[in-house]
Specification:
By secondary structure, the protein is an alpha/beta fold. The chain is built from 24 helices and twelve strands. It is elongated. It comes from Allgaiera indica. This is Pimeloyl-ACP methyl ester carboxylesterase.
Length: about 525
């Protein structure tokens, strides 16, 4: 049986990747350092591509000003390929043109300024139009036999502007042979002449391709998804802060209840419990969520400290606008560092801080356990920030494919029975994979941004807090071992540690009704 080369064994990240991929893919993986090496321009191209074309039904790719292909899928999906290089003909002034390359027809569109978020190095968008798609894009698609491969290639060359003689020469065929073949094509399309067919096909294909490609004004996709999942149980707001940042805020539960500002985990911005709204209303709790994955100011390139500081200011403005006093802050998993930073910068706005499934804040205290995957990836980013793009690319590629995401999560949580049970429930809910795919396509940097923020010395901020802190941790959390978090809690003068049995890293989802009751029973707490 084939085995991975010894040099490719090692990190938890790589082991997880190997466990997820089909064996043929896993055996062909390059060394980890090569896998993670990505340039900033490549990252910008991928982010733009997935934000704008992930839901497009056409086969799309991007090319830069040097004619270099920009999108190379991390996981081959059996889709038709694109040439490594391609160029818009100099004789094409209209912005749209057809070209034939590698025995296939491509539609090129070089007006990339139509997209506000298009990176400056991009030159054009390419769409591959195969033999099945070409007639389907026209109004007069053949009612009889489909185009043969030979007929498709001839029609492709004619659409590129070649006359019949030149097209025959390009295909290595005689003029007379191709003249007869044109008549067969005309008969299939029911066209009166070659000129009429080419004119109508050009217009129809161009219109349909551009309709599929060009951006449309629409509501933010994350708002659409949360409304589809929760319906009338969620209120979607947008607050414009003093520095001009539009901050989305989602509200669940009692509209005039005790406010809880929830800093969500890395996986999704919502809690996967069908009874979430009901439990919140029962305990008169108002659940406020800012889906930080989808904040442009918090997910683009630039200094992480500046982005965190800007978001903290915007959150403070939002809390002051929506509530009448201090709130209960709750951070879960990767959201812990965000919650701590917020309370440290805005002590007057927080009356109590809950930290659930707190990530490992330091190297392992026990050599037998070693660092968690959070700590391991954090160390990679700390040592070489250039791997950020490569890590995000791999994470997003897996998240876009439910089968691979399912395998990866099962591998990560394989030693925690409560977490595996929770995951199996999540897997049965379609919105779960919708969230993973949306975050991977729209918030492409968010996964590694979360890990990067964990490095921003949140532990020092935590030790400087004056408000009460409650750690809640699953006894069977293998992602962040509870013993280390309990030691941390014991070192703080105003903290308590609650170890929950029959719970893992998803302790909040697993015991949400008990958590809600605990928060509701706290003294004080402003309402509204």
């Amino acid at each position: 049986m084939s085995q991975l080369p010894p040099r490719q064994r090692g990190s938890q990240f790589f082991q997880t990747l190997v466990s997820v991929l089909p064996r043929s893919h896993a055996l062909s993986l390059p060394p980890e350092e090569d896998l993670l090496e990505r340039s900033e321009l490549e990252t910008m191209s991928e982010r733009f591509f997935h934000r704008n074309f992930a839901e497009c039904d056409l086969f799309v790719n991007l090319y830069d000003r040097f004619g270099m292909r920009q999108i190379d899928p991390f996981i081959a999906e059996g889709k038709p390929g694109f040439p490594a290089t391609m160029a818009v003909p100099a004789s094409s002034p209209s912005g749209c043109t057809f070209v034939v390359a590698e025995a296939a027809l491509f539609f090129l569109y070089d007006r990339v300024a139509q997209w506000d978020d298009a990176p400056g190095h991009l030159a054009f968008v390419a769409v591959r139009i195969g033999p099945e798609l070409l007639p389907a894009l026209g109004d007069g698609a053949p009612a009889g036999p489909a185009l043969s491969r030979s007929e498709y290639l001839l029609l492709s060359h004619l659409l590129c502007g070649e006359n019949l003689k030149a097209a025959a020469a390009s295909l290595g065929a005689s003029y007379d042979t191709k003249r007869k073949q044109v008549q067969l094509i005309l008969d299939k399309f029911g066209a009166a002449s070659q000129t009429a067919l080419l004119r109508s096909l050009t217009l129809e294909v161009t219109a349909r391709v551009l309709d599929a490609l060009l951006p449309r004004q629409r509501r933010r996709p994350e708002a659409q998804l949360v409304k589809r999942q929760f319906g009338r149980d969620v209120v979607v707001n947008t607050i414009t802060t003093d520095d001009g940042l539009d901050l989305p805020v989602w509200e669940f539960g009692a509209r005039r209840g005790r406010p809880i500002l929830y800093f969500h985990n890395m996986l999704t911005p919502v809690v996967f419990r069908d009874d979430l709204p009901e439990v919140l209303r029962r305990h008169n709790l108002r659940w406020l969520v800012v889906p930080r994955h989808f904040l442009d100011a918090a997910s683009g390139p630039g200094d992480t400290d500046l982005r965190v500081a800007r978001l903290m200011r915007a959150l403070a403005d939002t809390v002051a606008h929506l509530t009448d006093g201090p709130v209960t802050c709750l951070g879960e998993s990767a959201g812990v560092s965000w919650a701590v930073h917020f309370v440290r910068r805005n002590p007057d706005l927080a009356e109590h801080l809950f930290l659930l499934a707190t990530p490992q804040p330091m190297p392992s205290l026990d050599d037998a356990h070693g660092p968690t995957i959070y700590a391991e990836i954090s160390d990679k980013l700390r040592r070489d920030a250039r791997v950020t793009a490569g890590l995000a690319r791999v994470y997003n590629a897996l998240a876009r494919v439910p089968t691979l995401a399912r395998r990866g999560l099962r591998h990560l949580y394989r030693q925690s029975p409560p977490d595996l049970a929770t995951l199996e429930k999540m897997f049965t809910q379609a919105p779960f994979f919708d969230w993973l795919r949306l975050i991977a396509n729209v918030a492409t940097r968010s996964s590694m941004e979360e890990i990067t923020v964990l490095q921003r010395n949140w532990l020092a901020d935590l030790r400087a807090l004056n408000c009460a802190v409650t750690f809640i941790h699953g006894a069977q959390d293998t992602i962040s071992p509870p013993d280390e978090i309990e030691i941390l809690a014991d070192s703080l003068p105003v903290a308590e540690f609650l170890r929950i049995e029959n719970a893992g890293h998803f302790v909040m989802s697993q015991h949400f009704p008990a958590l809600a009751a605990h928060i509701a029973a706290l003294p004080g707490g402003q309402v509204g």
